[in-house]
Write a structure and sequence with these properties.
The protein contains six helices and two strands, in the order H-H-H-H-H-E-E-H. Helix 1 packs antiparallel against helix 5 and helix 3 packs antiparallel against helix 6. The longest helix has 28 residues.
Length: about 160
């Protein structure tokens, strides 16, 4: 079962990387009317939150660049950025590296208890690494859909 779940992660992450690779730097920074964030923010947010869900909540060191929390953490938005964000190439590299690290870390970790139980903004409670890891697929897919909607809205402007 673990192998099937890790293969599913590859599918989800592959979709994200494919969209990233079709996005230009210019389009990545458009925040259309009705949106708080842009494509770059959503891609970086996927990386930061998955790192937190898989590694941070398990008490493992997080390896995304330190700046990712201030750029892409919950509640942040591009309108508040005071310095240049990471390039799409850097975000792509972080996402790819992260997937490799997760594949090395996750086997035999699904039942590992989190340092502290975690409740997300939707009120969902998590107690194990496996629970947060599986939730990360939903989170990533939700932001991929948002990226698609931003892309459509940006093209219509």
């Amino acid at each position: 079962m673990e192998n099937m779940i890790l293969k599913h992660m590859d599918v989800v992450r592959g979709i994200t990387i494919s969209i990233l690779e079709k996005t230009t730097e210019e389009v990545a920074d458009i925040t259309p009317k009705g949106f708080n964030n842009n494509i770059r923010w959503n891609l970086g947010h996927i990386a930061f939150i998955q790192e937190k869900l898989v590694f941070g909540l398990a008490g493992e060191p997080m390896q995304t660049p330190e700046s990712y929390e201030s750029f892409f953490g919950a509640g942040t938005k591009p309108a508040d950025w005071t310095e240049a964000p990471p390039s799409l190439e850097e975000i792509a590299n972080v996402l790819k590296d992260q997937a490799h690290r997760i594949k090395e870390f996750m086997p035999q970790q699904f039942d590992k208890q989190l340092i502290t139980p975690f409740t997300n903004k939707a009120g969902i409670n998590f107690t194990t690494v496996g629970e947060t890891f599986l939730f990360s697929f939903y989170h990533e897919a939700m932001h991929v859909e948002t990226i698609k909607q931003i892309g459509k809205a940006a093209a219509a402007q």
